[in-house]
Amino acid sequence: MHDLVIIGCGGFGRESADVVDAINRSAPTWNLLGFVDDDPSAENVARVRRRGAALLGGLEAFSSRGRGVHYAIGIGDAPTRERVASVAEAAGMVPATLVHPWAAIGADADIGEGVVVCAYAQIGSDVSIGRHVHLDRASQIGHDCAVEDFVTVHPAAVVSGGCVLGPGAELGTGSTILPGTAVGAHAVVGAAACVVKDVPPGVTVKGVPAG
Ligand SMILES: CC(C)(COP(=O)(O)OP(=O)(O)OC[C@H]1O[C@@H](n2cnc3c(N)ncnc32)[C@H](O)[C@@H]1OP(=O)(O)O)[C@@H](O)C(=O)NCCC(=O)NCCS
């Protein structure tokens, strides 16, 4: 069993803990020490207590004693996730890759450090997934896609084959990306949008067709 903390106790942080619980039910792997969070809301403190987990304080304080401890980042915002990863790595913490046992992973998928894959997510053949990517419940990444570091794919988003998702890109719930399309770095695709052509870096698109 490896010691593990989840950084951030918001919605995705607690969903990441659900992934840890499912992995442990399948094969005892992680000793979840608790959540690290700089400023948890009162609601989230109550939610963490209800699940019987510990709150371990803020990142700066925890990282001074975190060398060798594995970590996953449960924070949806990509720039914040990037900052947190650099603090954790400078402190000698080790990124954990968490894949729910009910996710389907194709042949020759390359999954980076710190990635969290939730229940019912599907990754096709010959896909590369960068570091600290979030694939939320029932999201789908088609064959031959390249998903770069810190991408966030919200629930039930569908990425067709041969797409490139640039670093820090965010795909809203239920969005669809047509085959061979590129979504630029830190671009945002709105919920339920259909992307039919490349999205430039940093741009937000929404609707059908997305624009
Ligand atoms: C597209 C999006 C990024 C826009 O966010 P925003 O810039 O804060 O936009 P606002 O909420 O101010 O809305 C601006 C306008 O766009 C519309 N709009 C917002 N989201 C939309 C969407 N997904 N599709 C179509 N129109 C949308 C609003 O109705 C509003 O229209 P109006 O100007 O006619 O009143 C955001 O709404 C979105 O869809 N994000 C995805 C979030 C998500 O999936 N989270 C999952 C968490 S698990």
UniProtKB/TrEMBL annotation:
Name one molecular function that GO assigns to this entry: transferase activity
> Which domain of life does this protein belong to?
Bacteria
Name of a matching Pfam family: PglD_N
Any transmembrane segments, and where?
none
Q: Does the keyword Transferase apply?
A: yes
PANTHER family from the UniProt entry: ACETYLTRANSFERASE (PTHR43300), UDP-N-ACETYLBACILLOSAMINE N-ACETYLTRANSFERASE (PTHR43300:SF7)
Q: Which InterPro entries match?
A: AcTrfase_PglD-like, PglD_N, Trans_hexapeptide_repeat, Trimer_LpxA-like_sf
Cite the Gene3D superfamilies for this sequence. Answer: 3.40.50.20, Hexapeptide repeat proteins (2.160.10.10)
Does the record carry tRNA processing as a key word? no
Record-given protein name: Sugar acetyltransferase
Name the keywords, alphabetized.
Transferase
